[in-house]
Amino acid sequence: MFDKGALLYLYAETPVHAGSGTSLGIVDLPIQRERTTGYPIVQASGLKGCLRDVAQGQDAQKVKIVFGPETNAAHEHAGALSVGDARILLFPVRSLVGVFAWVTSKDVLARFKRDAMLAGLQNVNWTETGPTQDNTALVAPGSAVVANNRVVLEEFAFTVQEDPGVLAIGNWFSCNVFPEGDEYKYWKEALPLRLVILPETAFRDFVQFSTEVISRIRLDDEKKTVAPGALWSEEHLPSDTLLYATLFASK
Fold it and tell me: How far apart are CA 100 and CA 92, in angstroms?
């Protein structure tokens, strides 16, 4: 039984590769994804390992209590902290106007609200919403990504439907999910007017096919040419992606 809960927000300031190993598909090193939805994730085990690495150098006994003993003493007890997978919340997509939009869907928002309630957040006072037609997108009144009553993301156009609920959700995110530093002031103000709630299928397609794919090479140390077979491609979550993870703690 858990005694405390919280949410951890992960904002990508640079492209992020949480790898799932090699693949026989077009991309040699794809990112981690949920099996059923295809949504990007960062698996809990890797995330917890990163948190433990950050905590190293602190009080060793506290680190042991929170994260558990080292591997050779793992039989002694479990760690007090339980970390969930980092799930997608907002995904940046190139826009015809406004440079880019943060897209999400009713399914993602409903998941987030459910997880927030489980973590004990009591201030999630908005209602998840989404378009009822596949060619429609919901935006806040006065959205910065609308042109001629259309939102054009990559090469896909959606008919705009203004919804005050989108503004409420965007304002909540602005106040709760970004770091407190002044360097995030612009992004907090921009988010509500760049937020777009898409149909489920369209959102899934964007998070599957609009990630960054980067080609990598390894040079031969002596010849300074590409080493034989040392050409591969990596998939990354783009900069300005926002994810969240649940954190639960027991005594």
Answer: 6
